[in-house]
Amino acid sequence: MTSIRALAGACAAAFASLCGLVAPAEAQTYPTRSITMIVPFAAGGPTDVISRIVTGHMAQTLGQSIIIENVVGAGGTTATTRAARAANDGYTLITGHMGTHAASVPLYPKLAYHPEKDFEPVALLAGTPILILARKDFPPKDLKEFVAYVKANAEKVNAAHAGVGSVSHVSCELLHSILDVKPVGVPFNGTGPAMNALVAGQVDYMCDQIVNAVPQINAGTIKAYAIATAERNPSLPNVPTTAEAGLPAFQAQAWNAMFAPKGTSPAIIASLNAAAIKALDDETVKKRLLELGSVIPGPKDRTPEALATLVKNEIAKWTPVLKPAT
Ligand code: ASP
């Protein structure tokens, strides 16, 4: 009996040490194949551009390619639903943002996912100030004229956006509530295509994330009335803040961040977070993100826990402000 008990004890000990090896081994081997990063908007827009810049570097760190898959529709919620239902094995991730992982909660009462319950936060990638932009030949010359013009012509003007719940939609909703106007919205599958329409003069104006705006402003293909942050952005030194231009109440900065489906192992989340941080610290990645006006998260804001807190706070912030879309 003693020998059987001893044998059982030895087996248990062997099993325990084997178990102990499983988690680190997973972290050591992950990833063994390419990873899919879902981008919930069209290619060429701000979320797509940020995702491509950061994952390009992460792929080198992880030793596997990261394939961007643009899945469009319903202000980014179609893609986010898909990501929430994906296998939680680290091979399907999503770049979510202030819209998909916060503002959509009050806007879509039947949202098929919950940003906090259905995702593991991985890392905040970039803060993205919002600008008020217009087609080049839109009559107002500056923000004061814009405000007067939109108020006087609210039934005639239109605002492009990337679908209900997208950053561009929510930001202009905020602007419109300050101005007390309800212009027509023109939805696109992302602000990439919306920007093309703005450049082509097919729509009047848009509230968009800086990453999408800098190349066009510098090329002189659109007008920028103001940036909705407390300070001017170094990438656009000539664009005044909303406070400088006479509309201090309009303040808006979005964010883009990486998430994995709920239940993805802590070891995988840790590998992904470390790779994302390494990317944000890379000089070339940093330069590119800063050239496009992004705000790179500082050390305190880079942990999965900090992202979880951001999501929680952003849902609490937007819920009383936004009414369900009809
Ligand atoms: N971030 C979106 C995009 O990449 C647009 C939006 O949320 O307004 O197109």
SSE topology sketch:
Elements: H1 2-29, E1 35-39, H2 46-62, E2 66-70, H3 77-85, E3 92-97, H4 99-107, E4 119-135, H5 143-152, E5 158-161, H6 167-179, E6 184-187, H7 191-199, E7 205-209, H8 210-219, E8 222-227, E9 253-261, H9 266-281, H10 283-291, H11 304-318
Helix pairs in contact: 1-9, 2-9, 4-11
Bound molecules: aspartic acid (ASP).
Aspartic acid is lined by residues 41-42, 45-48, 97, 99, 162, 166-168, 190-192.
What does this structure look like?
- The protein is an alpha/beta fold and 326 residues long.
- The chain is built from 11 helices and 9 strands.
- The protein has helices spanning 2-29, 46-62, 77-85, 99-107, 143-152, 167-179, 191-199, 210-219, 266-281, 283-291, 304-318, and strands at 35-39, 66-70, 92-97, 119-135, 158-161, 184-187, 205-209, 222-227, 253-261.
- Helix 1 (2-29) runs parallel beside helix 9 (266-281).
- The termini are far apart.
- 47% of the residues are buried.
- Residues 1-22 have low confidence and may be disordered.
- It binds aspartic acid (ASP).
- Aspartic acid binds next to helix 2, helix 6 and helix 7.
> What composes the largest sheet?
9 strands, mixed
Number of strands: 9
Order of helices and strands: HEHEHEHEHEHEHEHEEHHH
- The dominant shape is globular
Bound molecules: aspartic acid
Distance between the termini: 73 Å
Beta-strand content: 15-25%
SS content category: alpha/beta
By DSSP (H or I, 4+ residues per run), the number of helices equals 11
Mean pLDDT: 92
Give me the oligomer status: single chain
Low-confidence stretches: 1-22
Over the alpha carbons, how many angstroms does the gyration radius reach? Answer: 22 Å
Helical content class: 40-55%
